[in-house]
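Appendix B.2, paired examples.
Example (i):
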Amino acid sequence: MTYARVAEEVGISQNRLRIIPGRFYALKTMVPTPNINEEFVRLWTKKNYLDLNPVGLLLFHENWKETNLILNLKVIPPVALNKILETYWEFSLVNGLANLFKPDGSLIPLEERRLIDQRFYLITPTTLSNVLGIDNLNYAINKYDMDYVLEARLIDWDNYGKLVNPQLSPEGLYPDPINIAKVFEDFLENSIK
């Protein structure tokens, strides 16, 4: 499935002001212009792409309630993405993920889990890069001001496997048409030196 379909089928609608780091979200966002061309994309993002519908890991930083940093899974080449997801799962297991499940293997209700602090919720961009052994992930980390977030959907832990091996889709990526192969190449060039 594409990430848009995963979000639609299993994503749990969230109040955009209550999203929490260390979890995976699908966002719908907007920008302050109707004309999204290459020049605007470069000025707005300092990258060669803009994603108005990112799907990824919300990272922790001091001002995460106002500005979200998302490790955008859609702009990471599939082979690297699968390794990142596998490593983050293992990191989460070591840092408290098991505490979110009942003895029968089902998840504790979401509202109860909001009250359970876990170390993996505090994953910063630098910590994630160190865990993965990658120089930096900045090319795939997008910043979203909460004023521009229209909708947030949680991809919960019981659907984590649906993030692996996605069907590629340029939905939400600009400029249109986007060269996704070039986006993947730029990720590799900027992240693994």
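Example (ii):
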Amino acid sequence: MKRICLTIATLIISTIFSEESMNQENNVAQYDMTLSKEDSKVEDSKVSEETKNNDPISYWYSKAGTSFLIQNFGVGRRFHNIQKYNGHDLNFNFHLILMGAGGKNGVFLPSLKYEYLKYKKDNCSYFGIGAEVGSIFQWRGRFYGVYPNIELIFGKERKKVQFTQLSINLLPAIATAVGIVSISSHHPFLGHADLGVVVFGLLTTVEYTIGF
């Protein structure tokens, strides 16, 4: 009788420990599955974020800019390729000669400009070159002609505004340099430059622009 009771007790104890061991193994397996799912979600999130960050960015903007003499207002659209660190910008501009504007100075200059931009590794700072074609009108409708322009561009995309950039207009810069040499040396090939033209070129060489 004692043997029978001992055998039954042994079976009950072994069954209890066996069930407890199985429960522990199931809990561990479920915990491992949970961790695996969490890791998978985190990894998927990272991949999604990387994919999102590598997508090309494009946006519309308005802008206001000024040189020492001419003010510029315009609109444009920029395409920024994050992976290739480059960008393309097409914008329409409306230049006004506001400083000293009057009856003789009522001139405005609409223009269309394309910019190729090369970004640094932070994908914020950039430099580039712009090609611009514009027309010269007077407020009363008189048409004076068409002008080209080439720009060297240095800028940075920002958080509070779309971007800020500094442009160097090459044609006014070259005209200013040639005029200064002409005035100072009286070279027969260069002729005699008008001082007003030289000053105008000097005051329109550098332009600062903010994009909103």
